[in-house]
């Protein structure tokens, strides 16, 4: 029994070692991917009730030897290793460069880009200053840039978070609360934040036509947004039925496969 125990321990170590190796490998891959420009941004359109395009959400992809890797396969490791800081910088810079290009085009200058910000990135003390530098560097119109934050990054000092939001908002940047309703932050904390938009999570949209419980949640989010003076957008809208239900409930902005899948922008 003693021997088996020792073997088990050895086996455990081996597994842990293997996992650690995989992590290091992935980390090295991300590092190299950043150097060799293997990352790209897909864009998914956001629509008004009449179907017109308001803007896009930027969604990162990693193209490795022709294979498109989704963010769920590398963002967690990028966060754990801290590589999300340079990767996130690249994402922001690329989105700002796109906005700067659109600024010159009369039929495109109204479009906004929403960029996902990870908690690790947001907690970096240099974050706000780096965003401001990027705006200056790229000459992007700040009022077309939207940053998507999540409830999970609202756990630390609320006053500090509010300061960062306000600093960036004086430049014209807007803030959207992504995946709203899936976290654990108290309403009190949320209502104190200087936000511009609530984003209804796709898990509530998914069952909208069948389950009245989800409809009740969606209705509550929409009413909360309206009472706080925020715009409300629903993500993961896949069917006409869902769009109709959302309209009935008072949500007039949409994003989802019903309209378009994330894709590269046409050149
Ligand atoms: P998210 O921010 O909630 O993004 C929405 C996800 O839903 C995207 O997955 C999008 O492709 C997908 N989606 C859009 N419409 C539909 C639909 O109608 N039905 C369904 N089933 N799905 C839809 P994606 O691109 O794989 O991104 C997954 C997550 O990875 C994002 O969730 C976000 O948390 C993270 N992520 C993506 N890009 C970035 C980025 O540039 N930076 C950071 N920090 N995180 C990112
Ligand atoms: Ca928006
Ligand atoms: Ca998002
Ligand atoms: Ca989301």
TrEMBL record:
Residue ranges of domain EAL in the record: 23-267
Organism: Nitrincola tibetensis
Residues of the full protein shown: 573 to 839 of 839
Name of the protein: Diguanylate cyclase
Domain of life of the organism encoding this protein: Bacteria
